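Fill in residues.
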């Protein structure tokens, strides 16, 4: 009975590790990849191959050996800047290292936080320069962590361009891309510098708002975004947008927020022309 209970606990811990929204890995005593969770694998790709030395994927990092040795000795290391090589591009991160207590042979838990100036797959959208999907998820997880610690509110919005597919078919790829660039610029002008604006793909944008005072403040921002897109410039946007938003509850997960915001977006799309819907 005790053995089966221990196995059940180990299985649960394994599931939590692999499905965590934090980018996590376990390193062995030789500083080689031993286990990599799904989120970190998406960020580093083939740069994180099990059994290979971690340092093989790093740019010249003078503090690597010292930081790893400190972690192995039992001293947790926080906020170490490491730069990763990803198929000719660089990923700038802050890394935390901590020895897993009571485990032999030695295992070191590594967590990774992406810095906003990074480039690479899922980090920055090549067309608009906004955050990509991987960076957006990283920022959303950090926002939720801060909100729980500081007892502040977080809102998430999903934004799509109305009739984008017909527009792309009628005007061609170049004009459709130019439309997305203009939408990205106007969205950027409508949000605070502390918020995270991303393009998740196609005509879908996403926004994380931290320290939102109330749902009314989130609704006010949605209205401000619509007003900003209505402003005339030398080239009219012609398309409106639909916005779906949600306020985060205390136990909310990133994927739950995205799902609920997407549902609100679909409701807003039933009334195209700069419409928005907030879910509570």
């Amino acid at each position: 009975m005790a053995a089966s209970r221990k196995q059940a606990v180990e299985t649960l811990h394994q599931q939590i590790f692999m499905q965590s929204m934090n980018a996590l890995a376990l390193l062995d005593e030789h500083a080689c990849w031993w286990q990599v969770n799904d989120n970190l694998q998406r960020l580093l790709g083939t740069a994180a191959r099990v059994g290979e030395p971690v340092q093989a994927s790093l740019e010249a990092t003078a503090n690597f050996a010292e930081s790893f040795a400190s972690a192995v000795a039992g001293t947790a290391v926080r906020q170490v800047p490491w730069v990763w090589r990803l198929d000719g591009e660089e990923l700038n991160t802050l890394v935390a290292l901590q020895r897993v207590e009571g485990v032999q042979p030695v295992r070191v838990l590594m967590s990774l936080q992406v810095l906003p100036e990074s480039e690479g797959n899922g980090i920055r959208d090549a067309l608009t320069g906004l955050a990509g999907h991987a960076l957006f998820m990283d920022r959303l997880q950090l926002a939720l962590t801060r909100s729980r610690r500081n007892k502040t509110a977080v809102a998430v919005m999903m934004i799509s361009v109305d009739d984008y597919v017909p527009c792309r078919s009628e005007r061609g790829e170049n004009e459709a891309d130019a439309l997305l660039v203009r939408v990205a610029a106007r969205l950027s002008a409508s949000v605070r510098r502390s918020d995270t604006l991303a393009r998740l793909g196609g005509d879908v944008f996403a926004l994380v708002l931290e320290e939102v005072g109330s749902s009314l403040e989130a609704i006010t921002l949605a209205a401000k975004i619509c007003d900003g897109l209505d402003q005339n410039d030398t080239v009219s946007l012609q398309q409106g947008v639909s916005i779906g938003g949600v306020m985060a509850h205390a136990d909310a997960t990133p994927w739950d927020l995205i799902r609920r915001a997407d549902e609100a977006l679909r409701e807003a799309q039933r009334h195209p022309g700069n419409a928005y819907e907030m879910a509570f």
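Residues 232-236 have pLDDT under 50 and may be disordered.
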